Amino acid sequence: MFNDKGILLESGTNELEIVEFGIGSIRFGINVIKVREIINPVSITPVPNAHHYVEGIIELRGEVLPIVDVAKALKLSPSDNPEKDKFIVTEFNKQKIVFHVHTVTQIHRFSWKDIEKPAQIYQGFETQITGVIKMSGEMLLLLDFEKLLTDVNPDSGIDVSKIKKLGPRERSNKRLVIAEDSPLLRHMISDTLEQAGYVFTEFFENGQEAWSYLESIADSGKAIEDEVQLIITDIEMPQMDGHHLTKKIKGDSRLMVLPVVIFSSLITEDLRHKGKMVGANAQVSKPEITELVQLIDKLVL
Questions:
Q1: Within 13 Å of residue 12, how many CA atoms lie on the same side as its CB?
Q2: What letter does residue 128 receive in the DSSP assignment?
Q3: CA–CA separation, 67 vs 81, rounded Å?
Q4: Is CATH 3.80.30.20 the right assignment for the domain spanning 5-152?
């Protein structure tokens, strides 16, 4: 089912497909693009002194993969029927990791416009949830898997100290627009870009807000290249994703001059073609922040 996920949706349609899974009675979702396969539970080898979310490791087709207990990570009750649990095998941030969940039910297709920020309607898991979808009177919560991965392995996150390897940096007057829905990552990216000399940055929580800002500049009659010199965008964001944002920028004669760099955990060789199809100038996998800065240096107007 997941081998064809790269062609399930055209690029830039602002749609996504979600695998619904459950922890107890709570319904969660994960982007199909992150999912390699779903398997029944297999034997787990415990690892001494591992993070308390990590149950241990499993072997899958010759690969040794860590397994994270999602219920424990969310401080929810363990499964009532462990033999019927499921393992979701994922790949993002250039890593493979397995998530232990209680049930996997179905795949849904949504528009990113259907997804609301959790702070607006759901507070309980706000730091763990990136979006909420209302479905038939219930809610499907989109879990922040990147945050879970960073909790388990802090080295998988953005490391500001890596910028020091680029040597002394001069302050730049270039203005960058960044679309990123994670508050944690907005803060880390801001610190990193400032360390790299890019101090004029405008952050937006999703692609729709970034688009509205760029469109307002263009509608004012100002030359966009005088106001903004480069765009950085995540892919997964409520309201408008990064592929759709890129497609709109590159399809607008007033904005198409702007270089667009996609900075996302979903940049893999299998999926890189999606960014190319919508006209991205470059694509970088999180957390490769040094590579991102080097591309900014190269592409900025």
A1: 15
A2: T
A3: 18
A4: no
